[in-house]
Write a structure and sequence with these properties.
Shape: elongated
Structural class: alpha/beta
Distance between the termini: 24 Å
Number of domains: 2
Number of strands: 8
Strand order of the largest sheet: 1-2-6-8-5-4-3-7
Strand content: 15-25%
Length: about 250
């Protein structure tokens, strides 16, 4: 009496497809972290060079720029008449782990085809209830020299809340909408992050042009994703070996 050989195990197609999808996701996440690392290193390098850069006249910087990107991370100075009492909108922000508001006002600018430049005057902690008096910038006001860093606004993310126009509160640097609310015509496509104080008598308003600490752990994150991909491949290989050995 002869016995039939045991049927050969079928190849686990479903498991293989699921594993390949998982590997593709994990490797893509690892590559994305490597791209973020390159971007972060470039940003840190620009910040390091910016620390020693002297401010240039804003009109000169705008006249030399061909695109908004040419103005990003450039230290400039310009006169902003009446800025300390200027009308403002608020931008939600974080500083050293504390939530608060950043005050944004308009400054006259006759350069690069723009008539105004929005100025981020600084950060106010959420716990502070005082606000500077709201007034409108008057052309005859005494010039106030402001030194700051030009920045190209980041695009809002998919989950960024919409602006609360009634409260004049924004959650992203929407230059066009902010300028419209402030009645500022032809705004520049960049924003000036003030380094100098625009309200010397209002200490709660703290100039904060750049983050004080910028984390750069993207290589660590990339290795984590690649490590998970390797572990998944190892588990799949072990499962495949056990499947055909049984």
């Amino acid at each position: 009496m002869t016995t039939e050989p045991a049927p050969r195990p079928r190849f686990p197609v479903g498991l293989t497809i699921a594993t390949l999808i998982g590997l593709a996701i994990l490797i893509a996440l690892g590559n994305w972290q490597l791209q973020r690392r390159a971007w972060k290193e470039s940003l840190l390098d620009r910040i390091a060079r910016l620390e020693a850069a002297a401010p240039v006249d804003a009109a000169e910087a705008f006249s030399k720029a061909r695109t908004p990107a040419d103005l990003d991370m450039v230290r400039v100075r310009l006169a902003c008449p009446g800025l300390s009492g200027a009308a403002f909108v608020e931008l939600y922000g974080l500083l050293d782990g504390q939530s608060g508001r950043r005050l944004v006002s308009a400054c006259p600018l006759a350069a690069g085809g723009s008539a105004t430049l929005l100025v981020d005057r600084g950060f106010i902690d959420e716990a502070e209830t005082a606000r500077p008096e709201v007034r409108t910038v008057t052309p005859g006001g005494a010039p106030e020299m402001v030194t700051g860093i030009l920045r190209v606004p980041d695009r809002p993310g998919a989950f960024t809340p919409e602006a609360d126009l009634q409260k004049r509160l924004w959650f992203s640097r929407d230059v066009v909408a902010m300028a419209a609310t402030l009645g500022a015509s032809r705004p520049a496509p960049v924003m000036l992050m003030a380094e100098s104080r625009t309200n010397p008598d209002f200490p709660a308003l703290k100039p904060s042009p750049l983050p004080t600490v910028i984390s750069n752990r993207h290589m660590e994150y990339a290795l984590t994703w690649f490590g998970l991909a390797g572990a998944l491949a190892g588990v799949y290989a072990a499962r495949l070996w056990k499947h055909f050995r049984s």
